[in-house]
Design brief:
The protein is an alpha/beta fold and 541 residues long. Strand 17, helix 10 (321-332) and strand 18 (338-342) form a beta-alpha-beta unit. The model has no long low-confidence stretch (mean pLDDT 95).
Length: 541
Amino acid sequence: MEKTIYINADVVTMDESCESARAFGVLGDRFAMVGSEQEVRLWGGNKAACIDLAGQTVLPGLIETHNHLSFFSLRMDHVDCSTPPNTKIGQVLEKLKDRAIQISKADWVFGWGFDDTLIDDNRHLNRDELDKITTDHPVIVSHTSGHLGYVNSRLLEMLGIDDTTPDPEGGEIHRDGAGRATGLLKETALFPVMGLFPKPTAREIKPLLERGAAMANQNGVTGIHDAAIGMEGAGPEVVQAYQELARENKLGVRSYLTLLNTLFDQYQALGMGSGFGTDRVKIGSTKLLQDGSLQGHTGWLSKPYHDRQKEGHVSQSIMGQEALDELVEKYHSTGMQIAIHGNGDAAIESIILAVEKAQKKYYRKDPRHLLIHCQTVREDQIPRMKAAGIMPSFFIQHVYYWGDRHRDIFLGPDRAARMNPLASSLKHGVIFTLHSDLPITPMEPLHAIHTAVNRTTRNGQQLGPEQCISPVDALRAYTTWAAIAGFEEEIKGSITPGKLADWVVVSDNPLTVQPEHIKQIQVIETVVGGKSVYARQNQPK
């Protein structure tokens, strides 16, 4: 195998035995030597290729532990209904109308990212205005949270929903004062829509997924946990697309797939449970949901929402405690990893209880079940998470993108200040990961690291400064700790001899730059397995 040495670099190894270095060597797709330039040159000998990095900073490849890359890839060309760029509902409707005119009657009109709390109209969409766009096409516009959706009458008919249809458990068919369905569907009421989506083939998915992976590479991402595969209505086809791209050397990210539990069951029955696959594509965990989103008022809280104190609104769970206990025990008892979505502290309590019960009955020393988002975890819950073997993955970008509204609308000042309590987690000895939840927020790890360190909102306010963490801990959440979340710490997460040669070259060192400037750091090059997959000066290779 060919040796290559990289010299004259500021190498942030994230390896505690060698925290920084000036050079490293690669043999095949693995790091083989890390140290001083003299040491690495001696290892390389006279025949090794030598690349001078001109003093640039090198970080381990960044691992994004909760996103929906495949779903994003399939939807990235759909109508952008977000704010910004849209400021009024009229602009959104005009875009949707233009799309309806351009497509055949067999096609759907898809929109994404609508935010009722940012749009100037300060309200939800409704079926009547979507019907004015078209009744020939099914229309679905997803809320920015991903947990609500707006549909026209055509799609309500396809779903079999009318004004008398009862709300499903864990969901809501929103109605106006006269009891008429408005077209707004929440949580489990929205889930059946996904089963009606036009089902793409693996061949159709591959170029879209390749494009999505290239976007991740542009942001320094070398590994992902693609969550809730199956929600797009094409679970096996997505897995097949991942596998084929990997075999063809066209997949720029190492992919740890989190399957919806129904799809996970199919793969588990074939002997393909957690950890099955290769270092390029493997089955990771099974995905469960126990509540929705705070900005959709569907996150399950123990105390009422700040703006709904009078009605005492706390939302509800997706499933009852007994049903959750049963599912958690089912997967836990067979050694599988579970990733459970929980935003509100009541949902988090329900999840902890379920894992505690499973551990009591089928003890596992290190299950590493992931509690996804973990937005409003209370101080008293964190030690119990540690004891139960639960690892949180915090949606830190909520602080930046929604922090102002969580403070003023959804949670109030006190609860919003300790949203995503990273410092509290570390105080209790609980390590964690950070994530983007793409497409809910952009997949920009360096910006997320900035938010973890500074806790600055989009309006420039600092939210809960006592929960700020150090740059090195924020970087661990995207490297060494992220590798642990996927049981991959022996092969990923640091620039260490023997580990996979995944790294990112950046414009400055996030550990030494002024904390308020971390978000300005740019990705120069991303490398996976010793091969460049993105260089800023050129198109992804």
